[in-house]
């Protein structure tokens, strides 16, 4: 009985405002740490793996990324519709953590496996595994990130949850940045392909264990009834076209993650060929994410002092300054190079802590503006933003490498070095600046407006109890499935 009371402990008298326990916050947040062991491997190392280990040309890799993002434009919205139309016995959104865990792990290992096939066979293998891995990532992550909307309606608790979650997420990135270069050499013993494969086996075992554990700790307290009003194509289009803040968030995620993907992808080329210090790749990669672990916990404090919009702007500012400064630092100045990387990573941490915390605000806005509550549809914009950022951060660097005639594992020409420098500094700085301008000019959901929207929604729910789109499980006498 005591456990049940703790489960529904209120953080405020408002409907749905529940306090989240430490175990649940950590359990939920671990998912991002675990998933990032694979996802950050894609962002940081897959391009280098494909060009320098697997044996694909930069042009082939660029085309692969471009076509994969076309599939994402179909699959990500479809997954959002599936999540809203289904009603699993054990929860609306959290069961996908268990459903997708093992298939995701198997495909991740196969993605970082070099098959004994001819070039065409290896190219086909790369397409199949890369497509499947991204498909399964969405299968898990879209419902998972929708969970925040059914765990509590309290914006303060959601901010706390997402801040801890992003700390774990960035910690997963630190593990990848530090250990993939080290473990791939240790496990490979001269066979780089084998080293990458065995490293991924280890990371996958950790990821799958985390997903199953987290499934047991997450509690859905707000029962979404969207399966009673199934999403149609018309509903989906209406939800997207009548959600201006959601579209801006989509662009924000494209910009923030493209900034990260570009710097992660370029870093290994920059340190190996421009700085001529491949021995420092691991440290440089760690500095791409470790400072972000430090800055994420400061986001709730910054929200209270300078508010959400200015916190996001500060993140993009640090990102732009750190990257732009790298362009003028001589290759011999290792300390200054690492300092520039630290500054940009601090900005990225502020972005991660901020952007994920303001998504639930847009879920409230979407219901307020359309009269329907489909969290997974709103989050589709976010997963699409992630996938488009992978296209921007994968296709453009690969295209730059191809255009400057990059050839792996040799001394690079000055033209190639200039291209690598631009994609390490100038390009991500430009992405940060453009995204900042778009956000500051067009994003309109301030804290006061969100409070007003939630108050209006409370009134609507009280006046339409018979056809409410969700229920509080504490108010249901026997918790029936509908």
From TrEMBL:
It comes from the Bacteria. InterPro entries: MFS_2 (IPR039672), MFS_trans_sf (IPR036259), Na/Gal_symport (IPR001927). GO terms for biological process: carbohydrate transport; sodium ion transport. The chain crosses the membrane at residues 25-50, 96-118, 124-145, 166-188, 194-215, 247-270, 282-303, 310-328, 334-356, 377-400, 420-443. Pfam families: MFS_2. GO terms for cellular component: plasma membrane. GO terms for molecular function: symporter activity. Keywords: Membrane, Transmembrane, Transmembrane helix. PANTHER family: MAJOR FACILITATOR SUPERFAMILY (MFS) PROFILE DOMAIN-CONTAINING PROTEIN (PTHR11328:SF24), MAJOR FACILITATOR SUPERFAMILY DOMAIN-CONTAINING PROTEIN (PTHR11328). This is Glycoside/pentoside/hexuronide:cation symporter, GPH family. It comes from Propionispira arboris. The lineage of its organism: Bacteria, Bacillati, Bacillota, Negativicutes, Selenomonadales.
């Amino acid at each position: 009985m005591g456990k049940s009371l703790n489960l529904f402990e209120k953080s405020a008298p408002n409907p749905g405002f529940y306090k989240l326990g430490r175990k649940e916050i950590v359990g939920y947040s671990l998912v991002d740490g675990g998933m990032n062991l694979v996802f950050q491997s894609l962002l940081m190392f897959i391009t280098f793996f494909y060009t320098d280990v697997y044996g694909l040309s930069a042009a082939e890799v660029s085309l692969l990324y471009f076509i994969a993002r076309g599939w994402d434009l179909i699959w990500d919205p479809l997954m959002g519709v599936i999540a809203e139309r289904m009603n699993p016995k054990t929860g609306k959104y959290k069961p996908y953590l268990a459903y997708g865990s093992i298939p995701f792990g198997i495909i991740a290992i196969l993605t970082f496996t070099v098959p004994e096939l001819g070039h065409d066979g290896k190219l086909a293998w790369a397409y199949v595994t890369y497509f499947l891995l991204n498909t399964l990532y969405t299968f898990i992550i879209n419902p998972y990130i929708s969970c925040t909307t059914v765990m509590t309606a309290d914006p303060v608790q959601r901010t706390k949850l997402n801040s801890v979650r992003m700390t774990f997420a960035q910690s997963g990135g630190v593990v990848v940045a530090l250990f993939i270069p080290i473990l791939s050499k240790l496990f490979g013993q001269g066979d780089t392909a084998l080293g990458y494969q065995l490293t991924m086996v280890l990371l996958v075992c950790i990821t799958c264990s985390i997903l199953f554990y987290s499934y047991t700790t997450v509690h859905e307290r707000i029962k979404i009834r969207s399966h009673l009003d199934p999403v149609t194509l018309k509903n989906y289009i209406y939800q997207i076209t009548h959600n201006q803040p959601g579209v801006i968030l989509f662009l924000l995620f494209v910009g923030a993650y493209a900034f990260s993907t570009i710097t992660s992808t370029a870093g290994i080329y920059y340190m190996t060929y421009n700085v001529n210090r491949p021995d420092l790749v691991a440290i440089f990669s760690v500095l791409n994410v470790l400072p972000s672990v430090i800055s994420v916990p400061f986001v709730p404090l910054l929200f209270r002092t300078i508010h959400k919009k200015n916190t996001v702007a500060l993140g993009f500012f640090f990102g732009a300054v750190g990257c732009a400064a790298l362009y003028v630092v001589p290759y011999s100045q290792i300390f200054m190079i690492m300092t520039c990387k630290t500054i940009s990573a601090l900005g990225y941490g502020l972005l991660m802590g901020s952007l994920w915390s303001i998504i639930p605000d847009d879920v409230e806005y979407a219901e307020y503006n359309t009269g329907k509550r489909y969290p997974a549809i709103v989050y589709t914009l976010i997963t699409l933003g992630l996938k488009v950022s992978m296209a921007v951060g994968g296709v453009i660097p690969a295209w730059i490498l191809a255009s400057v005639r990059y050839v792996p594992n040799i001394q690079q020409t000055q033209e190639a070095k200039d291209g690598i420098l631009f994609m390490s500094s100038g390009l991500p700085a430009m992405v940060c600046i453009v995204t900042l301008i778009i956000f500051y000019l067009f994003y309109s959901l301030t804290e006061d407006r969100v409070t007003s929207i939630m108050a209006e929604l409370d009134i609507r729910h009280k006046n339409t109890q018979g056809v409410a789109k969700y229920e509080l499980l504490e108010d249901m006498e026997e918790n029936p499935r509908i």
